[in-house]
Specification:
By secondary structure, the chain is of the alpha+beta class. It has five helices and 14 strands. The protein has two domains: 79 residues, P-loop containing nucleotide triphosphate hydrolases (Rossmann fold), CATH 3.40.50; 105 residues, OB fold (Dihydrolipoamide Acetyltransferase, E2P) (Beta Barrel), CATH 2.40.50.140. It starts with 15 loop residues before the first helix and ends with a strand.
């Protein structure tokens, strides 16, 4: 557990992360066939959580013990797990690899819960829906007049500068997020979208800027 230098300390003298390592050592001592982690990092600060989930994954790989890891933190689930089971109100929504659950969500709940998303409602007309000024095709099985949910991830929207007369939307707020910047865009229809842009381009999308939005990827689900 990498706690040799703390062997003579009392429990209250250990940090939260160190106490969790002790708990893991106690769970592993009898060499179980299965380990159940029930939100083990819920009360620990963000930096220690990151360190611990990397550590738990290393221990898992070294010991070869099957682990069931319960968490509400989607980032934690995607990083730690080989397989992700998404539950909602007692029902299984989807089961698959982290890549499958993120890249190919099977239900509206999974698409909106795993990863950040803009969730929109549209009515089908002539087999298409309108999103950000573009007509997107819908499964032919969905009848005209039906309402569908459209899920667009913030990373799947490209912004282009536009004049006020030509623009689809306007930037209302932006924020530096570390590895990227987030912009909140209000469309001509009054919807507010979150869009992620490279930090190098952040100055182009300051509040008040008029833009075109180009949606590069989307998911459509029945309402």
């Amino acid at each position: 557990m990498r706690l040799e230098s703390y062997a003579n300390r009392f429990p209250h003298e250990l940090s939260g992360g160190q106490q969790q390592r002790v708990a893991l050592a106690r769970a592993l001592a009898p060499r179980p066939q299965v380990l159940l982690f029930d939100e083990p990092f819920a009360a620990i600060d963000t930096q220690i959580r990151r360190e611990l989930r990397t550590f738990v994954r290393q221990v898992h790989d070294e010991m070869g013990v099957t682990s069931v890891f319960v968490t509400h933190d989607q980032e934690e689930a995607l990083e730690v797990a080989d397989r992700v089971l998404v539950l909602h109100e007692g029902n299984v929504e989807q089961f698959g690899t982290p890549e499958e659950v993120y890249e190919k969500p099977g239900t509206l709940f999974v698409a909106s819960f795993i990863g950040e998303s803009n969730v929109l409602t549209r009515a089908v007309q002539n087999g298409r829906i309108e999103v950000a000024g573009a007509a997107l095709p819908v499964d032919p099985a969905v009848s005209d007049g039906s309402e569908v949910a459209v899920v667009v991830r913030p990373k799947d929207v490209e912004l282009q500068p536009a004049s006020e007369r030509e623009a689809h939307a306007q930037v209302v707020r932006s924020a530096f997020k570390g590895s990227y910047s987030a912009c909140w865009i209000r469309t001509n229809d009054g919807e507010v979208w979150e869009v992620h842009v490279p930090n190098a381009d952040r100055h182009r999308w300051s509040p008040g800027a008029w833009v075109h939005m180009n949606v590069t990827r989307w998911f459509i689900f029945p309402r």
